[in-house]
Amino acid sequence: MIEKLLFEMNTYAALSPATTEILKTIFQVKQFKKNEHILRAGEYAKYYYFICKGLLGYYKLDPDGDTIYKMFFEENSFCASTAAIIEEKPSTFNIIALEDVELIQYSAKAFRELVRTKHDLALFQIAYLEKNWVVKKEPLEIELKWESAKERYLELVKNQVLFKRLKQHHIASYLGVTPTQLSRIRKELKE
């Protein structure tokens, strides 16, 4: 499993053997059962996660206590409450296992210290952030402002692997609609 993580990291930037060996010392393999929280809102985020198997949901509760999913993380994805780590504040988001999950967790503090001293790891971090926080995230932010729930649903359907793994209430929450509204969208698309 650790080799899988290292392989993924090397797709962003080549890591030296020395950096690789140091990283191995901070990696911990963990397992979580379906519906188990990896992080709860209000807790300090101490770890970064790499999903080897399973599906994670990243969500918060609205003022009425309804779940609002922001993102889903599949295999070979990195996940964390990054803003909470950077700001050293309690997380406003929850991370939950939507399926049984096997992941690798590693200390955010230890990793961030290594980024400061290991040039190759800093290049990984830059490349990762550019791809996932700028290139990938920017269109999502635009979609949320301008596209209808129906258009966002059709975009989600394009990722069939993820789509088939989600329950209808996850999809409705992610789209910001009620389950009834989602049913209407699906019915309209079938016609």
From TrEMBL:
Organism: Sphingobacterium paramultivorum
A Pfam family this chain is assigned to: cNMP_binding
Taxonomic superkingdom: Bacteria
Residue ranges of every copy of the Cyclic nucleotide-binding domain listed in the record: 11-115
GO terms for MF: DNA-binding transcription factor activity
PROSITE patterns cross-referenced by the UniProt entry: CNMP_BINDING_3
UniProt-recorded name of the protein: Crp/Fnr family transcriptional regulator
SUPFAM superfamilies the UniProt entry points to: cAMP-binding domain-like
InterPro entries, A to Z: cNMP-bd_dom, cNMP-bd_dom_sf, Env_Response_Regulators, RmlC-like_jellyroll
GO annotation, cellular component aspect: cytosol
